[in-house]
Design brief:
Layout lengths: L10 E3 L2 E7 L5 H4 L3 E5 L5 H25 L7 H18 L2 H13 L11 H6 L3 H15 L10 H13 L1 H7 L27 H12 L3 H18 L9 H10 L9 H4 L3 H7 L11 H19 L27 H8 L2 H4 L12 H14 L3 H5 L6 E4 L2 E6 L18 E4 L2 H4 L3 H11 L17 H15 L9 H12 L4 H8 L4 H4 L4 H11 L9 H8 L4 H9 L5
Antiparallel strand pairs: 1-2, 2-3, 4-5, 5-6
């Protein structure tokens, strides 16, 4: 029980539970703050409550251990400073030859070399970049520890040690013979040419160089542009040399605070304003993998810039993304959940369809239904061209492929994802071929013209966002998203006796050297297997009654009027 009489309990912060304890008065000098947080390692309330007693006892033991091991440091500040200064003098005087060689090498690595023998140690130190100076001091600190009292180092004392080490750097240059007087500049056999770097190169420029060289897929490029836009929105699109490691650490801490879903208007807000939106406890935060993936791209851009010598120092080096790959926690939808979803008006009542959105309702309906009966990824379906629709012996199929189209490029997750999928007769019977004919007549090359973006590109993610909003309307569970239907498809295909090879072909999980061999000749075999599945949980009769007699030419005309490209 806490001292104020209240029962101690887990403390929730940024989605995780902690033990939150007031630092005892006698340990304030070690922690340098009034409260101490220790993560319990979970964001689930019930689990946190179960683990809390042991974690809380661990904090108590930690406090007791610190009390038992801090008696060697004097209480008076003057005595502490005297100890620090004495330790530094001993380090300068007593360093072994090996230590001096190591530190000599470290100084050389960060660019310290005399231009002339007239340079003073102080002038030499002044030419070291601040970030490199920190590295030097950290290395000297590690050597200094053996000359300091044993036990935990109080935070204020450590700060004073680092401060005094920095002030004495010229003494190390002199005392350890690190001025390179013994290697006169004229005696060098070779001096490497000076690397000409643009001191004003920006992060946006580095991102463009990275993209031109590595040719990332559309999804990765969009994420890279997004994270660079957010970073520069926060700090400014200024020369990269002005950024510090603290900037990257701060950004890495802010990125996970963004909401998981935002409206188009919200996505246009400055980065700081969007972070504030995430402060609303009612709005779910982005999944861990999303900010981690963006941070990884940011690090890749900076790493390549360093490798290609566009920059001399990479402040993002070693940046923790805060996420380790976890197995997919999303479960399949139950039969009742599937029925609820496809009973929504966008699927069952075309009279409610809206055409004034970025993605019109007919596109949402078709992509959702095809995704249900094929187990395909939404982005693969949404990017399809009209010519990707195939017919063979009464069967209808869709070719999913990657293509470097100038205006509307198509991409797939892996090379093995290029394949042909059969569209189930249940969906074809709703008028799919009539819809395709109307799209051809309109002159659109895209099967879903409203997915196109003016000037080139596709907004496939917007289709996914719309469908997940529909899922949220009827299923209030974080572990269920529209992608869960892929799990549902796999489970039901196996239950129906569908060949494992066919199931993998439909979902895009076959090896690249196998999937490429499947084509028109394979459609009939696909159809035979897929007809084993009937999807009885879907209200087909209700959907068919709503879709019967639809005039697809007029519907497509309305889809095209929304300034879609």
């Amino acid at each position: 029980m806490a001292k104020n009489g209240r029962v101690a309990k887990p403390f929730l912060k940024d989605g995780l539970f902690y033990v939150r304890r007031r630092v005892p008065q006698d340990l304030l000098g070690i922690f340098g703050k009034t409260h101490y947080l220790k993560s319990i390692g979970t964001g689930v309330a019930a689990e946190a409550a179960h683990l809390f007693p042991a974690a809380n006892a661990g904090v108590t033991s930690h406090f007791q251990h610190l009390r038992a091991s801090t008696g060697s440091w004097p209480a008076l500040a003057a005595d502490r400073l005297s100890l620090i200064d004495s330790a530094i003098v001993r380090l300068i005087a007593e360093a072994t030859v090996a230590q001096r060689k190591i530190t000599n090498f470290a100084f050389t690595q960060v660019g310290m070399a005399r231009v002339s023998n007239d340079d003073t140690p102080t002038a030499l130190i002044a030419r070291v970049a601040p970030a490199h100076r920190v590295r030097l001091i950290a290395g000297l600190f590690d050597d200094l520890i053996k000359f300091l009292p044993s036990g935990p180092l109080p935070i204020p004392v450590k700060a004073e040690v680092l401060k005094r080490l920095e002030a004495r750097l010229p003494d190390f240059v002199t005392g350890w013979h690190l001025g390179f007087d013994f290697i006169p500049q004229a005696a060098r056999k070779f001096t490497q040419p000076t690397i000409e770097r643009d001191p004003n190169v920006t992060l946006s420029s580095l991102m463009n160089m990275w993209a031109n060289a590595t040719k990332p897929g559309k999804s990765a490029l969009d994420d890279a542009k997004s994270v660079v836009r957010d970073f520069t929105d926060l700090f400014g699109n200024i020369a990269v040399t002005n950024f510090t490691r603290d900037d990257f650490d701060y950004f890495a801490g802010e990125l996970p605070k963004l909401p998981a879903a935002m409206s188009r208007a919200e996505r246009a807000l400055p980065f700081g304003e969007r972070v504030k939106l995430g402060g609303d406890p009612a709005r779910p935060k982005a999944k861990d993998a999303t900010p981690a993936k963006k941070l990884a791209l940011l690090k890749a851009i900076m790493s390549r810039a360093l490798k290609k010598k566009h920059i001399a120092y990479n402040p993002s080096q070693g940046l923790e993304t805060g996420h380790k790959h976890q197995p997919d926690a999303r479960r399949q939808m139950t039969s009742s959940e599937v029925r609820l979803l496809f009973s929504l008006p966008v699927f069952s009542d075309p009279t409610t369809w809206q055409y004034d959105r970025e993605i019109t309702d007919p596109t949402v309906a078709w992509v959702g239904l095809i995704g249900l009966v094929s187990g395909s990824r939404l982005g693969e379906i949404a990017q399809a061209h009209v010519n990707d629709v195939l017919e063979d012996e009464g069967h209808v199929a869709l070719s999913i492929t990657a293509a470097d189209d100038e205006r509307h490029p198509r991409s797939v997750k892996t090379p093995g994802s290029q394949r042909v999928i059969v569209i189930h007769p249940r969906v074809v019977s709703l008028g799919f071929l009539d819809y395709v004919a109307a799209i051809r007549a309109s002159g659109s090359t895209l099967l879903f013209p409203d997915v196109a973006v003016e000037g080139g590109g596709l907004r496939s993610k917007e289709v996914s966002r719309r469908l997940n909003q529909l899922v949220d309307e009827v299923i209030a569970r974080d572990e269920v998203v529209f992608h869960s239907l892929r799990h549902t498809f796999k489970a039901r295909s196996r239950a129906a006796g569908v060949s494992r090879d066919i199931e993998r072909q439909m979902t895009g999980h076959v090896p690249a050297d196998v999937s490429g061999h499947y084509g028109l000749a394979f459609i009939s075999q696909l159809a035979v297997e897929m007809n084993k599945m009937s999807f009885p949980m879907v209200p087909w009769d209700r959907i068919r009654r709503g879709w019967v007699g639809l005039k697809w030419a007029g519907i497509v005309d309305q889809m095209m009027k929304g300034n879609h490209w």
